[in-house]
Structure to design on (201 residues):
């Protein structure tokens, strides 16, 4: 199933349709401010396992997608300097690595102590998470070693993955550049991957 949602003003009825799939333990593909991504509710262990199977990796690093800063502190440890840095830079195409809180399910962490967190600037992604009422777990459709057309075109993404996921959100053409990955677990922020976002220090 493919659902068209316009980013300028995401339609509530269509967003609710996507949220219903997530609440029933479904897996979606949705647009972000960088590449298209797999998404599922953080509350669904079954959907999490499905994303891992689709990606074909035993260890799949997933990020937590929130719709605003207040939810990040529920799932990651955030001190004052970190909060200020996040506030300066979000929403935007960043994945910030933080120390995970006890609210992050063990199956997500896979013995790791850190978690990536995101607040995309894409209005569709934020509308879905806001309506869901809890964060999504996410992993990009495009792997770092892939540069292929189907990862930016929602119609081609649907052709490739439509039988493996419950719903593809068509939010227009995506980007081929990943998020900028920033580690905030040390004494100083460290950029682990240069991507689309430019960090405001």
């Amino acid at each position: 199933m493919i659902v068209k949602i316009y980013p300028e003003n995401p339609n509530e009825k269509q967003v609710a349709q996507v949220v219903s799939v997530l609440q029933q333990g479904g897996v979606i593909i949705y647009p972000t401010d960088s590449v298209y991504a797999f998404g599922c509710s953080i509350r669904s262990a079954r959907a999490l396992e499905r994303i891992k199977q689709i990606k074909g990796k035993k260890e799949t690093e997933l990020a937590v997608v929130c719709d605003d800063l207040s939810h990040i502190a529920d799932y990651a440890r955030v001190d004052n300097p970190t909060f200020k840095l996040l506030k300066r830079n979000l929403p935007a195409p960043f994945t910030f690595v933080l120390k995970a809180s006890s609210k992050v399910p063990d199956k997500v962490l896979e013995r790791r102590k850190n978690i990536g967190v995101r607040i995309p600037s894409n209005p569709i992604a934020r509308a879905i998470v806001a309506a869901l009422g809890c964060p999504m777990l996410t992993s990009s459709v495009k792997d770092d070693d892939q540069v292929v057309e189907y990862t930016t075109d929602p119609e081609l993404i649907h052709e490739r993955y439509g039988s493996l996921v419950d719903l593809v959100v068509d939010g227009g053409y995506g980007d081929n550049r990943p998020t900028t990955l920033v580690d905030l677990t040390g004494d100083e922020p460290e950029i682990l991957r240069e991507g689309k976002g430019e960090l405001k220090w």
The two ends are 42 Å apart (CA to CA). Residues 2-193 form a domain with the DHBP synthase fold (CATH 3.90.870.10). The longest helix spans residues 12-23. Helices lie at 12-23, 45-55, 69-75, 80-89, 106-109, 123-132, 154-161.
